[in-house]
Amino acid sequence: MAKILISRDGILEQTVPLTRERMTIGRQRYNDIVLEHPTVSGEHAVITTILDDSFLEDLYSTNGTFVNGHRIGKHYLQHHDIIKLAKYRIEFIADGIRPLTGAALSPAALQPAPAVIEVLNGSNAGKRLALTKPHTSLGRSGVQVVVISRTATGYAAAHTEGERVPLLNGTPLGPRPQALADGDELDLSGTRMAFRRS
């Protein structure tokens, strides 16, 4: 289970396991994670965790939310990311441990069939990108980013960053990971790409 380590002025104040799918961070008492400082907004940010993936989203806070020195709107969290929220330094720890149901599975059984992203239009039409990593980012940081995650059961796509909303098969893709099927089409600012099982 992932967790966050919350420090202020170099002193660790809280260790919070991300036990729920949606956990809000803010100054007001009704938040799941309360940070009592006047520079923290009442509802500052939220962390959404689905299976092994956690996403941080700024909730239009006054002073912003920063990850590894960059101001973010939405961000796919990775192990040891450093979140700056007003006076607080928050480290994201992804332990990668998830309980197995039933009998333990062999490592080979946990790997989905290989897949690729194929560019369908523009100057890069025909190029193929193998999805060999646990998480592959597509798009431009700060403008529009889609992350494709490889899970035990297959692949899923989520919109993690930027104001422009990408499309999956003509429908807006949100921050919640959506399973990909062979032939599914992504549209990132007019660049069309197809998900293909190789």
Task: Describe the model.
This is Phosphopeptide-binding protein. Residues 23-72 form the FHA domain. It comes from Pseudoduganella armeniaca. Pfam families: FHA. The protein has strands at residues 3-8, 11-17, 22-26, 33-34, 45-50, 53-58, 66-67, 70-71, 74-76, 82-85, 88-93, 115-119, 128-130, 135-140, 144-150, 155-161, 167-168, 171-172, 178-179, 185-188, 191-197. Strands 2-1-11-10-7-8 form a 6-stranded antiparallel sheet, with no helix packed on it. It has a 6-stranded antiparallel sheet with strand order 13-12-21-20-17-18, with no helix packed on it. It is 0% helix and 47% strand. It folds into 2 domains: 3-109, Tumour Suppressor Smad4 (Sandwich); 115-197, Sandwich (Tumour Suppressor Smad4). Strand 14 (135-140) and strand 15 form a beta hairpin. The model is unreliable at 97-110 (pLDDT under 50). It starts with a strand and ends with a strand. With 198 residues, the protein is mostly beta strands. The chain is elongated and about 50 Å long.
Break the fold down into its secondary structure elements and pairings:
Blueprint: E1 3-8, E2 11-17, E3 22-26, E4 33-34, E5 45-50, E6 53-58, E7 66-67, E8 70-71, E9 74-76, E10 82-85, E11 88-93, E12 115-119, E13 128-130, E14 135-140, E15 144-150, E16 155-161, E17 167-168, E18 171-172, E19 178-179, E20 185-188, E21 191-197
Parallel strand pairs: 3-4
Antiparallel strand pairs: 1-2, 1-11, 3-5, 5-6, 6-9, 7-8, 7-10, 10-11, 12-13, 12-21, 14-15, 15-16, 16-19, 17-18, 17-20, 20-21
